[in-house]
Amino acid sequence: MGYGHQITPDEIEQFGEDGIPEAAPTLDQFKEQIDSYEKLYLEMEQVEPVVTFDTWFRLDCKPFKAALLNTIKRWSLLFKQYLIDHVTNSLQGLADFITVTDAGLLNQVQEGDYQGLVTMMAHLMAVKERTEATNTMFEPLKQTIELLKTYDVEMAEEIHLQLQELPEKWRNTVKLGIQAKQQVAPLQANEVANVRRSIASFELRQHEYREAFRKLLVFRYDCSTPYEILDSTHLAIHAMETELAKISASAALFEVQIPDFKQLKMCRKEVRLAKVGDRCGVVCLF
């Protein structure tokens, strides 16, 4: 279901460890597949359950025919149920999202309330990330419901009600997001400045650490305590990586561009290489 077609060995070899990118099947593909099972079911129904060969050999296929028809119907229902679940889960997921997000966007963030600001920015980011998909989801869902009707599958009244009400509720959520963004704009600007200062400070410290790192005795052949130095270096780099993760999270939340911090990544890479080189040396001794 996740790829829209049967995976071939060539595709598996082509994408390798990266994995084959998912591509959901289209509604036309679902219709084609369901129609093929419906047609096959009708054809199998016409098959005579009892056949007589040469006037004396009587073959009773009733159990086989019943099992075959049941299998065909189950495959048809599998695709129909997938569409039913897709419509139901999409609408319910949006309804739950709107309920939680509206409650969050209506909160007033006071100056100095950092956690409140972070929560508000998370809601605003969630609305932004969901906007494109939500704006285009309603028409395909209506088409899916219409397709299911052709197979005598009726959705619950609650689904039809959600399909009528949710577009307006979603537009209201977007409006609340715009109002909330305007309300927290001054607080956001202050926090953006703080994040940029944190980035600049970390940038300077990573360059300073890189210079100290390159002078470590562990990279000399006559180092007498390589394991102790590697352990302490790992802990120092890990602490900086943890701090960087927090800065990156804040930067993403407040939409601040963050540099690549290549110096820190080089330090981590060289520590790993030093450990790998040591292991290779131990293996060679044996």
From TrEMBL:
Residues 80-172 form the Dynein axonemal heavy chain 2/5/8 coiled-coil domain. GO terms for cellular component: dynein complex. InterPro entries: DHC, DYH2-5-8_CC. One of its GO terms (molecular function) is dynein light intermediate chain binding. Pfam families: DYH2-5-8_CC. GO terms for biological process: microtubule-based movement. It comes from the Eukaryota. This is Dynein beta chain, ciliary. It comes from Amphibalanus amphitrite (Striped barnacle).
